[in-house]
Amino acid sequence: MQFFDSHCHLDDEKFNEDREEVIKRNLQENNCKFVTIGYSLESSQKAIKLAKKYDLYATVGISPNDIPQNEEELLKELEEIKQIVETERENKYLVAIGEIGLDYYWNKENKELQKLAFIKQIELANEFDLPITIHCRDAINDTLEILKKNKVNNMGIFHCCPHNRELVKEALKLDFYISFAGPVTFKNAKNANEFISIVPNDKMLIETDSPYLSPEPERGKRNEPRKVKYIAEKVAEVKKMTLEEVAKQTFENAKRVYKIVDK
């Protein structure tokens, strides 16, 4: 049985002390594939380097929590992201633009800059025939409005998707995939079972968002891709599927949305 962690951050500084050990452990011992996600210019550069070195998959992009605080600098960094894509696009390890999106929980003073960064990176994804992976926190209406006005040609993923019924329904109408993360396993999670139930099997993904959001029963510890099995167990319980069925389905879904061809 093999799992696919569709969203993790092995480029994050929390792995600086043992990154190679973690990567090898998850690839070899735990038979887990994963995509390491860029969230800033620097982390995107690191993600590409990791993908090359360890034969992984990576994305590049600037998240709403990492955009520069003026338009000139933002456009400059986005141009550097584009240069990375132009250079690496033919290499099969670059699989998406992300994470991108809106976050009004941590940042409320720069909404227009966030929207600009989001739209520009959707355009970048369309230009290079790539899907996107979306971060959305306390910004559901604006996120959906942008997606409806700016067509995403190659689908995408709502990563660590908020447990919001209307968001999920609208995202599915737009042909997006929904990714379940550690919070669905939390004992105080609201609407988690309903949230899992309404997502069709062919549109569901599982992720860790490592090193964050470690699932039960390891909540509070540093997260890593191997723990994606706990999210799969929760999905299996709610959907009345076997763990093997969830692992296989989400593995195939991840390959489809990221356009991954078996090596």
What does this structure look like?
The protein has 263 residues and is of the alpha/beta class. The chain has a single domain, classed as Metal-dependent hydrolases (TIM Barrel), CATH 3.20.20. The protein has 9 helices and 8 strands. It has an 8-stranded parallel sheet. It starts with a strand and ends in a 6-residue tail after the last helix.
Q: How many helices in DSSP terms? A: 9
Structural class: alpha/beta
Largest sheet: 8 strands, parallel
Q: Report the count of strand segments.
A: 8
Classify the helix fraction into a percent range.
40-55%
Shape field: globular
Strand content: 15-25%
> What is the CA–CA distance across the termini?
18 Å
**Level-1 CATH class name:** Alpha Beta
Please list the strands of the largest sheet in the order they lie side by side: 1-2-3-4-5-6-7-8
Q: In the CATH scheme, what's the topology name?
A: TIM Barrel
Query: What is the N-to-C succession of helices and strands?
Result: EHEHEHEHEHEHEHEHH
Q: Indicate the CATH architecture.
A: Alpha-Beta Barrel
Report the radius of gyration as a whole number of Å.
17 Å
Q: Which spans have pLDDT < 50 for at least 5 consecutive residues?
A: none
What is the residue-averaged pLDDT?
A: 95
Total number of domains: 1
Q: Identify the CATH homologous superfamily.
A: Metal-dependent hydrolases
